[in-house]
Amino acid sequence: MEPLGYIVHGGDYNPDQWIDTPEIWDEDMRLMKEAGINSATVGIFAWSLIEPEEGVYDFSFLDTILDKMHKNGIKAILATPSGARPPWLSQKYPEVLRVEETGIRNEFGVRHNHCLTSPVYREKVQNINRLLAERYKDHPALMMWHISNEYSGECHCEKCQKAFREWLKKEYHNDLNELNFKWWNGFWSHRVTDWEQISSPKFRGENHVSALKLCWNRFVSDSHISFFENEIKPLREITPDIPITTNMMGTYNGIDYQKLAKKLDIVSYDSYPPFDAEDPLEVAKSWTFIYDIYRSMGGNKPFFLMESSPSLVNWRDVNKLLMPGRHAQSSMLAVSHGADSVQYFQWRKSRGGHEKFHGAVVDHIGTNETRVFREVAKLGEQLKKLGEVTGGKCESRVAVICDWENSWATTHFHGYNNLRRDYFDECQKWHLPFSLRGIPCDVISETDDYSSYDLIIAPFMYMLKTNVEEKIRSFVKNGGSFVATYLFAVADKDDMVYYGGLPANGLKEVFGIWAEESDGIPEGREGTAEYNSKEYKTQHICDVIHSKGAEVLGTYTSDFYAGEPSVTRNSYGKGKAYYAAFRNDEDFADDFCSDLIKELCIKPSTDIIFPRDIIIRKRGELIFILNFTDEEKAVTLDKTYYDILSETDVTGILPIPENGYCILKQKEILK
Ligand code: GLA
Ligand code: ZN
User: Fold this and answer.
1) Pocket-testing residue among 13, 111, 146, 270, ligand 1, by greatest number of atoms within 8 A of Cβ
2) Does 377 share its domain with 410?
3) Is the C or the N end of the chain the one with fewer CB within 10 Å?
4) Whether residue 633 is found in the same domain as residue 550
């Protein structure tokens, strides 16, 4: 997608709730302009209004809204309505309703709740999407398509079971012997002799075959993707120049987001960080990881912050208001990490229904006189000054591998420590040392391109997919540094353990080690390992490894494997392969990465000196400095900068207010 040149400021706009009081729509337009809103996402929940009965259409409401938006200079992100169905549809075609794992078909209600396979549902969705595209293809407000809403969940109906079996036939070349072998079905006498003997994993049925579970994950994910492809078919045909996105949810792993992202023109994310309910700095640190995932997922491109709350949400057990200024700061954190938009759920608070106490820009009072409205308007003014960052890339020399399929695989296998898998937390732990030092770090999948990096870290990369061994080998051979941790390259894509010793195949040579055994460490019985004269706890899982040529950088200092290596480095070709054999939740990743950063001369993206609890991020020519603590902090500027928000020059020691931020630009590159 071409850079827009301005930050999109908008959000979910559901004026269909006020169909009986349309004068509110004019007030919306007036208030939107006052709040610096330049876009609105419409139609997400409008299906029952635009098709009140099967085949009976009334687009007058959307016509009016889109015209009003255009007249007021507000662009439309037009949603396809498949996330929420009108009741007539499931009344007439019960097959569209989702079947739970229990085998019981749901009744009408809530959202999503649809079968992913149902031909009727797919047809109905494509039909309404086609009508929307035909009607609005030339509408001057139309800016982007927002496909459905937060795809999620799975369906276990007979149609989905049949589709699953077809999927399996393709995967295993229509050969049950191959499937039996790959699923290791000889064990427990599970050899299948008819495809009909296979169904989705269920609590009351087959749920101990990890390969089945992996296949089911992939099938469900592919079903969402094919549902998406069915949705966008008419849109690509009729509006080929209008970009397409769908909104995703953090590290939700019911769909392989890294695969879905490749089908989108721009990736988008609904972001609800629990600021103020938890330690804000810790929340901000975790969110730097999530934003880096979203930036990387689209191929190191900007993403859209599709939803956020300007105040609170309604779906946590306890919903804390964001303190004054926090929403703007939180939005700037997203922009600094690659968001080209700041958008809300939702523009105006519902009067009734499930989400009436969820934060919105316009509260029930209906005016601009609220704290939240004023804050949004102020942020709108600030965002206008940041247009130049849109479209900008961020060049990272470092990447952490965080792979959706590995998140499945590391959940499914039984063994070692069945309580502590924490795949995404592990990945985040290894991203943080870079983020905290202002060093850009991508978050990529195992199969993404490695060629632009000097350093790749692969935490808990249990599943080694086909051809990835060769990728790692040539990355290191050509001068890259690759860090693997415990339980690395253990199993293939079907969760079959690689024979011949671990890590798999030739990786033993690349890493210069052999991982003979792995240990599950119970809580309270942590051991110790030494690295660089400092002692660390070994927690949850560790490998007992032997050097086969690698240099030993640290050893275990407890248990019967005391004296065996815990951290190794092997020179291979022009590069180096590191193995960190134990998990540690405290300082180890940070200390280890700090050494790597020095060794590889990896520099932060600015020369500004800042304390560890400040988050600093350069995007394009702008430097965002964010303070998520309750104390004023000072950074030391290496030269004179222009402060974009206060419109003054700054030099020397620059105070960053508590819970505040500054955005700077180098004087000499001021346009
Ligand atoms: C999600 C949905 C929205 C809304 C918000 C509430 O992001 O997409 O429709 O329900 O949650 O936080
Ligand atoms: Zn189904």
Assistant:
1) 270
2) no
3) C
4) no
One domain, residues 179 and 260: no
- Domain of 647, in residue numbers: 614-669
Same domain? 333 vs 413 = no
Start-end of H helices in 271-422 = 280-297, 326-336, 371-383, 404-412
For 207, 279, 421, the CA distances from 418, given in Å and listed in that order, are 15, 28, 7
Residues in contact with ligand 1 by the CB-under-6-Å rule are 149-150, 270, 272, 307, 313, 315, 345, 355, 358
| Model confidence at 422: pLDDT above 90 | yes
Tens digits of residue pLDDT in 151-184: 999 999 999 999 999 999 999 999 999 999 999 9
> Is pLDDT above 60 for 409?
yes
Distance from residue 345's CA to the centre of ligand 1 (Å)? 6
Any idea how long the chain is? 671
- Quote the ligand 1 centre to 309 CA distance (angstroms): 9
**Of the candidates 550, 569, 599, which is a domain's last residue?**
599
What is the total count of domains within the chain?
A: 4
Say which CATH number the domain at 359 has: 3.20.20.80
pLDDT value of position 670: 59
- Residue closest by Cα to atom 7 of ligand 1: 270
* Distance in Å, CA 104 to ligand 2 centroid: 11
- The answer to whether residue 3 sits within a structural domain is no
126 and 191 belong to one structural domain: no
Return the closest-CA partner of residue 229 out of 388, 358, 116, 384: 116
Asked whether the beta carbons of 143 and 39 are under 8 A apart, the reply is yes
Q: Are residues 13 and 142 in the same domain?
A: yes
Which residues are annotated as catalytic?
150, 307
From residue 202, how far is each of 157, 288, 394, 420 by CA, in Å? Answer: 12, 36, 43, 22
Q: Are residues 193 and 278 in the same domain?
A: no
CA neighbours closer than 13 Å in the CB half-sphere of residue 603 = 6
Phi, psi dihedral angles at 290 (to 5 degrees): -65, -45
